[in-house]
Input
Amino acid sequence: MPIYAPSLPPRPVLDQGLPPALVIARFDIRRVLSQRMGRFFGFMFVVSLLIQLTMLYVKYLLNTNAALSGIKDFANQVLTQGPEFHASILTMSGWLTSLLWFQVALVGGGLVARDSLYRIRPLMYAHPVRPIDYLAAKGLFAAGLPFVILLPFVFLPWGISLLIAGLSGPVSLWAPLYLLPAALIIALIMGAVTLGASSLAASPRAGFGWVLGISLGSSAIGGLLSGLLHQPIWMAISPQALVGAWPDLLCRVADPKLNWLPTVIGTFAHLVLWTFVAARRTRPSEAVL
Amino acid sequence: MIAFQDLEVRYGDVVALKNLSLDLEDGIIGLLGPNGSGKSTLLKTLLGLLTPAKGVGQVLGVGLGSPDAARLRARIGYMPEYDALIEDVSAFEQVAFWGELSGLPADAARDRAHEVLYFVGLDESRYRHVSGYSTGMRQRVKLAQALVHSPELVFMDEPTNGLDPEGRKRMLDLVLKVRAELGTGVILASHLLEDVERCADQLVILDKGELKAAGSMAGLRKLLAKRFELRFLDLLSLEQEARLPELGRVLDNRHGLYDLELHHPDPVEPFRWAQKIGAVLVQLTPRHDRLDEVLIRALHGDIATTKGGN
Output
């Protein structure tokens, strides 16, 4: 056991540490990693990735193995092809994005709400932390988490496709050029919604409810309006639909559910709205000492 | 250490602090006042979180409302009244976190966290999650996070809140230790007057955003040293009683026992006055006011502001 002096030694030099935003984001990441929730989602994403890679290998076999030519036509009808296949790498027909939404709601719902509940934020502002640092830290975590999770989905199928089949593999050589921006935009949408929803909540549990409520509720309203008015553009009010639309658009799917204009406007509106909400809700004046 | 003039802070149309002027020297400063008196607003303003609508001032040489407010906060420690603890993390981890937020490199913050937790008396328990801590231990974690970066000035908001007598004594000993061993300036906001009386060497009393009294504890007591209880051999006649204001301000009269604030602190004066009006003074007792009486009188406007002086 180390032995310490009865009083404190002289102060070490300040101003040599990391920027406050990085310190807060790193602390949040460590907390999540130490929780069982992180392990559960880690397992689920690894399983999803393995399924993705298995499907990729099946596609490769279908194209190269003559013994499977009998089921090739049927398999091609079942499995997505071309741009749809590339877009599905990030969405897995909605499974992956739904899992991501559930994860950001569960992990990110408490991101700001926990600080509100335990009144950590006012104490942060009593340190050399500006509101912009706080917001940047939380935003970095909220958007960074889904982005980091999506990165293996962008690069592993692409790398393995190149490895086993070269340029003629099922995944295009240029796929990361489309998938990486799509992953980034998906992460930004999820991050903004999580940040805004969590700042509205008074506890992590309420934050989870807010994130799911916003993503599912807006999807329900969007679906209802587009059905009633026979105009699919109304789906653009749903962040869930926007998350699904970006891979389709960037991979140039022939008949996307949402076109460019409503997707761009909807994405921009969500990013601005939820960032604004979060900024308003995390001002020092909201943080009563 | 802290000085400001004509400070006014507003929340929209509501004036939270009105024309405060103070000059506080290095030491332990007791900040007293009822709820809503403006204590928290004053602390927020001193931390640079609120910009004054009017007035000028400085904390540790940095002007209030200046762009350097964030850097100033690295030189100040703040121990909040409420818990503000991260429950699912050990005391060591969170004190190191607060150290890093104050600008310490990660390794230095971890070393410092060990040292400061030892300083406040949380030895091996520093590795346990805070959720299992007693109230006294939680208060000490809060103090540790306020001291981890060795600030020049610490704001302590109700540091003895919820503590039993033993825990309270230990906390007040720590407050005195912080001042004596580290030389750190302390602003001790409390509603427990005995705590302030025990630790503080300067006192500021606020009410409804206004300064009611300020000065050194010794100075305030000196001001109150003019208070005496007087009893005469026979009850004073109405004419004699009417002349009492010549001697001082009559605060109370309980069946011939007069509570007076004398115009002059010279104790011979009442005897001379009694002789002059033909009465015999048989009791002259100085009243040693407790701090709670000082507070109550200050809130009723019976004590004039003594700006930083003795």
Summary: Chain A touches chain B through 38 residues (CB under 8 Å). Chain A has a mean pLDDT of 87. The first helix of chain A runs from residue 20 to 33. The radius of gyration of chain A is 22 Å.
